[in-house]
Design a protein that fits this description.
The structure holds three protein chains of three kinds. By secondary structure, chain A is of the alpha/beta class. Chain A is built from nine helices and ten strands. Chain A has helices spanning 44-51, 76-82, 98-108, 114-127, 143-155, 173-188, 200-206, 224-229, 234-247, and strands spanning 4-15, 18-29, 33-37, 59-64, 67-68, 83-86, 161-165, 192-196, 209-214, 217-222. Chain B has helices spanning 3-11, 14-41, 44-59, 62-76, 81-107, 110-118, 123-153, 165-176, 179-208. In chain B, helix 2 packs antiparallel against helix 3 and helix 3 (44-59) packs across helix 5 (81-107). By secondary structure, chain C is mostly helical. Helix content of chain C is 81%, strand content 0%. In chain C, helix 1 packs across helix 6. The chains are: A alpha/beta, B mainly alpha, C mainly alpha. Chain B binds chain C through residues 56, 59-65, 67-68, 71-72, 75, 99, 148, 152-156, 158-159, 166, 169-170, 173, 178-184, 186-187, 190-191, 194-195, and chain C through 61, 63-70, 72-73, 76-81, 157-162, 165, 172, 175, 185-186, 189-190, 192-193, 196-197, 200-201, 225.
């Protein structure tokens, strides 16, 4: 019986006159990989930022398991220990090595001892294939390596949910693969993930559900098969067609 | 009097010049950093007060502020000219240092703060462990400039009678009637002090620099 | 408080006179500094190696020693070599020579920023090196330098405050006289401070106005210190 880990109800976010999105409802079950797609500027990133409370929604509620995290008085820092985020621009701490980046949350937030933190951090770095780069600084790493460290940093906190905000959009094409591979592995291991991306190949292969957002609304959502082969709305079909052409991951679909 | 004695008389003022600097500069740093943190992270009203502080204390000539503070302080508390002068210079420097630290804090992109929060660090922790360490490195070059300025401005306290380099040059210039030599000697000593401090801070900058792209 | 405001009434004339001298010192110092600074900048950017080094040495010396010492050398020291200046003249020279070192750096920075690309463009249509510098590079470099250069007039205005120590009758000197008359050192110097603040404020507004007026549409302007 799928258990909802993240429940979003009636979420609205506005900036002054601009409505980013309104009355959004979304449920994410444990172990799900949700891929959110849509044209740029439709509020996908803002939605993710609301989930880990980096941005406060104007209306609506979000539950993590049974806790309403949007309620007044919730400890945001506490909540963020359970929700990991990976950024488009990596946002590694420039003054720390890869190991240092992964350790910081462990020592300062989880209050682990230095040895325990180092051990755990090295474990996560191995998980993303970068144990041998532990003592490198962000400036000494390639984009793909930086992003993998970013993933390790988020994973180290043992989150319930991982949020990926266009994780490969800032990468050179040949570096995208290594990051997507790590993400695929994670999904297979059962991590609950919300991924905003344009990588349709990843969406097709790894997503449990694809959510198509446009102009602040969820136009349609469904399994990859449903969305790619039998979309309910023309707009969905149009968008998917355009973007798979653009990203060249299309197999000949005409059956 | 031979040149050696001449030079050493002026040179012995170096202790006081360095003393003034070593009080004024750290005092300025302490106050300046505190105020800068308030300015950047303290909210709109606080920022406006800080802005006022900056405008006023950077808009008044240092020598005017020096005199105001010196006379005000000697009326109330019994401070020596050395201490009154040093602390006054510290206050002057604090306004400039506040701007330096503020600039450095703002240069560390807001994204770094966000990434730190995303990992669960509190705002205070994020500022302390992620923003400040990076800001410090950015602040060193302009700070090195400020250090040079304080060393040079320390010469102003001669007007309060503190027997530092310039005062001594003046005294021995008068007694020997060799003003040119006296002041040139003073100039050389100041130059060496400024040079040394700039060099030292350069080395510090290199030592602290974050490695990038091998 | 009322007492304090009364100082302005009582010494207002004197303060105004002193402020006039201060402004004059600033203007002259700025002008000397600009001409000399420009020459130094050009020497550093386009001169032969030895000239570059000489200019560099000048800048290092004048930025590496206190203005007060420079002032004393000119006023008290040079007479020993037979060159004697009046107080005001010595002040003009010291302020000018000192300011030149700083202005040279501002100008050098913006000349370099405009520099080689525009030089190539100018030479490519047949202009000589110095024509290019005069008609192409400097007009742009001077405008580009304005925001950061604007720090200099204000800095100079404040710097002039020390020349009262060689008895130039500027605002500080008037202040000192008023203070010794009233024995209210703190009060008088506070009043003086206010006058300086007003001057700085006005000068700042003027410079901002100038910046806006001379801005080349679309060109990158760095922000002020």
């Amino acid at each position: 019986m799928p258990k909802p880990i993240l429940t979003i109800k009636n979420l609205t976010k506005t900036y002054g006159q601009n409505v980013i999105f309104q009355h959004l409802d979304l449920t994410v079950n444990e172990g799900d990989t949700i891929v959110i797609i849509g044209p740029s500027g439709t509020g996908k990133s803002t939605l993710l930022r609301c989930v880990n409370l980096l941005t406060r929604p104007n209306e609506g509620q979000i539950w993590l398991d049974d806790l309403e995290i949007t309620a007044k008085g919730t400890d945001e820092d506490q909540v963020r220990q359970h929700i990991g985020m990976v950024f488009q621009n990596f946002l590694l701490f420039n003054h720390l090595t890869a190991l240092g980046n992964v350790k910081l949350g462990l020592t300062k937030v989880k209050k682990m001892s230095d040895e325990a933190a180092t051990e755990k951090a090295m474990h996560e770095l191995s998980r993303v294939g970068l144990a041998d780069r532990a003592d490198h600084y962000p400036g000494q790493l390639s984009g793909g390596q930086q992003q993998r460290v970013g993933i390790a940093r988020a994973l180290a906190m043992d989150p319930r949910v991982m949020l990926f905000d266009e994780p490969t959009s800032a990468l050179d094409p040949e570096l995208i693969g290594e990051v997507l591979e790590v993400m695929r592995q994670l999904a297979l291991e059962g991590m609950t993930m919300m991924v905003v991306t344009h990588e349709m190949g990843f969406a097709r292969e790894v997503a449990d559900r694809i959510v198509f957002m446009e102009k602040g609304y969820i136009v349609e959502e469904g399994s990859p098969d449903e969305m790619f082969n039998h979309p309910k709305f023309d707009r969905t079909r149009e968008f998917l067609w355009k973007i798979t052409e653009l990203y060249g991951k299309k197999e000949k679909e005409a059956e | 009097m031979d040149f050696g004695q001449f030079l050493s008389y002026i040179g012995s003022g170096t202790v006081l010049t360095v003393g003034v600097t070593l009080i004024a500069l750290p005092a300025g740093l302490l106050i300046g950093t505190l105020l800068a943190l308030l300015y950047v992270y303290g909210g709109k009203a606080t920022a406006r007060v800080m802005n006022l502080y900056s405008t006023v204390f950077r808009g008044i000539p240092p020598v005017v502020l020096l005199f105001i503070l010196f006379f005000a302080v000697s009326k109330g508390i019994n401070l020596s000219a050395f201490w009154a002068g040093s602390l006054s210079l510290g206050v002057v420097s604090s306004a400039y240092q506040m701007e330096i630290v503020r600039g450095a804090l703002l240069s560390v992109s807001g994204d770094q703060l966000m990434a730190a929060r995303a990992v669960g660090l509190s705002r205070l922790q994020a500022i302390r462990y992620v923003v400040l360490p990076q800001a410090v490195r950015l602040a060193i070059p302009p700070w090195s400039n400020e250090a040079a300025i304080v060393i040079k401005d320390s010469s102003l306290v001669y007007a309060l009678g503190v027997p530092e380099i310039l005062r001594r040059a003046q005294l021995i210039g008068a007694s020997s009637q060799r003003y040119l030599l006296a002041y040139l000697s003073a100039a050389v000593i100041y130059f060496l002090l400024v040079f040394a401090s700039t060099r030292l801070l350069n080395l510090l900058e290199q030592k602290l620099s974050i490695p990038s792209n091998p | 408080m009322l007492n304090w405001l009364g100082y302005f009434e009582r010494f207002g004339q004197n303060f105004l006179r002193g402020a006039g001298v201060t402004l004059e010192l600033t203007a002259v110092g700025l002008a000397i500094g600009f001409v000399l600074g420009l020459l130094l900048a050009l020497a550093r950017c386009y001169g032969p190696k030895w000239l570059q080094r000489a200019a560099g040495a000048y800048i290092a010396v004048f930025r590496g020693t206190p203005l007060l010492v420079q002032l004393f050398i000119i006023y008290y020291g040079l007479p020993e070599l037979g060159v004697a200046f009046s107080q005001n003249m010595a002040a003009y020279l010291a302020l000018g020579f000192n300011s030149a070192a700083y202005q040279a750096e501002y100008l050098r920075g913006s000349i370099n920023a405009i520099g080689s690309a525009q030089m190539q463009a100018g030479r490519s249509i047949g202009l000589s090196k110095w024509q290019t510098i005069g008609y192409v590079i400097l007009p742009q470099a001077l405008r580009l330098a304005l925001p950061s250069w604007s720090n200099e007039p204000i800095s100079l205005l404040k710097t002039t405050a020390i020349v009262f120590l060689i008895a130039v009758q500027d605002l500080m000197a008037e202040g000192k006289r008023a203070a010794t008359t009233t024995f209210d050192f703190v009060g008088i110097y506070l009043a003086i401070a206010v006058v300086y603040l007003v001057m700085v404020f006005v000068l700042d507004a003027l410079l901002k106005f100038l910046e806006r007026k001379t801005k080349i549409p679309g060109m990158d302007i760095e922000t002020r210190r």
